[in-house]
Design a protein that fits this description.
mainly alpha; 7 helices
């Protein structure tokens, strides 16, 4: 049992493309879709995450060069809209207030709680009219 839990926590749930594929698969099955449609949807989601990671990495890297050039040419100080650096700065600030490593944990717990609330709101769509599961939190766990 410990081996299976270790496999899930350290090998599968740490890989965003696998984690979101599982979430999409469960979503399709919960909607009563065929297993084949659920597998295709999970595969598409995992490929989409991989492609997004490649594209966002290239964009962030190249945009960083542009920001550096603008800073050197104009002397302006600022930060780009990079979710990773923004998240890192937020976690560092929370760590400074709450203690080393504690802020990061609470930041990730907040993301998890928000995801669960989103799932509950979708489950109650008859009353909430919310039909979309917000999966873009993967940008913060990559």
């Amino acid at each position: 049992m410990s081996y299976i839990l270790d496999l899930l926590l350290k090998q599968i749930f740490t890989q965003p493309f696998l984690l979101l594929a599982i979430v999409v698969f469960i979503g399709y099955m919960a909607m009563g879709q065929k297993v084949s449609k659920a597998l295709i949807g999970a595969f598409k989601a995992s490929i989409g995450i991989i492609v997004m990671n490649i594209g966002s990495g290239a964009l962030s890297t190249n945009f960083g060069y542009l920001l550096t050039a603008l800073k050197e040419a104009t002397g302006l100080q600022g930060a780009g809209l990079n979710t990773y650096s923004t998240m890192t700065a937020g976690f560092e600030k929370m760590d400074a207030v709450l203690g080393d490593g504690v802020g990061t944990s609470w930041g990730l717990y907040t993301l998890l709680l928000a995801f669960i609330v989103n799932l509950i709101l979708v489950a109650l769509r008859k009353w909430t009219k919310i039909r979309a599961v917000y999966l873009t939190g993967n940008a913060m766990i990559v």
